[in-house]
Amino acid sequence: MNIVQSMRLAIRGLSANVLRTSLTMLGILIGVAVVILVVAIGQGATKAVNDQISALGTNLITVRPSPKQIRLTAAGRTATTAAPVNDLKVADANAIAKQFPSTIAAVAPQVRGNVQVRFQGHNISTSVTGATASYQFVNNEPVSQGRWFTDYEDRGNRKVCLVGMTTANNLTGSPNSDLVGQQLVINGDNYDVIGMLASKGAGAFGQDQDDVIIVPITPAMQRLLGVTVINNLSVMCTSTAAMTLAEEQISALLRIRHHLMPPFPANDDFQVTSQTELLARQSSVTDTMTMLLTAIAIISLVVGGIGIMNIMLVSVTERTREIGIRKAIGATPNDILMQFLLESATMSLIGGILGTLVGVGISYIMGKSGWNTIVSSSAIIAAFVVSGGIGIFFGIYPASKASKLHPIEALRYE
User: Fold this and answer.
1) DSSP assignment, residue 208?
2) Number of helices (H) and strands (E), helices first, in the chain?
3) For residues 6 and 339, is the Cβ–Cβ distance under 8 A?
4) Is the pLDDT of residue 414 over 80?
5) CA distance 411 to 378
6) What are the C-alpha distances in Å from 40 to residues 47, 52, 178?
7) Contact 89, 80 (CB under 8 A)
């Protein structure tokens, strides 16, 4: 018997019980769909992170408060406290920029918080970033309308701001709003809008990067947030080659300014991270999450394969007399083996095709909803191969059992 005849018999056997066949394929469908969806989300997140870091430049260093500090106890021993320590100030940023002009091109201290904003009857909550004039250059933050504020406006505590597109949309109720020349009430103070930030879209994990207002750091700290420390420093080096030396210089200066004692870096109250290190960390996180979710999806595929084997064993038992008749009229064990293998493989492949369509469809919908998703052709090919392989692997035992049935005993089976 050739492969075409075996295929016809396999399809006829599957179509004899459509509901049971459909339910059996459901496990494979879900597993394949989840694999494609997880890979799409993982690759999309990785690309988004890479694009964001590349947009900022590869010669950028970030300085943040350290989450831990080692201190000396009364007995002279070291102990670790998990309490956050933040001694970063604008003066630290100014000192870094002044001390190392050969390795550091610009420094942009930043402070962040949440504020209430009112405009023409609309009242919303959004995030505010206090920054210096160098923020635009260091963090690659272009404006679509208007201008950036100046050092004079920052030092003069002028109440001016730049508005993100999402914030403007929320305040006006219309997309692509231009608020330049308008006045916003931020935490009870009037601020003149001097610029509109260029749209940046969703971040690596779906966060809206355009829902923000940027104001000069002096009024942000003194008027809006009431803080004396900053959240982080963005440091642009003169070149990529100068980054290692710049990191060492920044660390040494901050240890002196903050009166820190050895051991270092364990006793540092700050953390210096380069864009390369940040990229590696972010990629490691997304890769780990993708692998974890893929493992869960593979378990679903294995469960689906077990379901196929179970149904095929039931099918062999139900069709024992049919197998006996086929053997009695000349079918060989290989013919029987091929028929049942094709049945299990067909169920798995159809489930894989439907799962691929579902996974691609959900990825497309999520992409339209703001998620960064990339449907990989290699993931689709792998899904087909794995689904077909699962059908064959889990179908071998039932098919082998059917092929080994003795024709006389099969004909006597009731």
Assistant:
1) B
2) 13, 12
3) yes
4) no
5) 47
6) 11, 18, 35
7) no
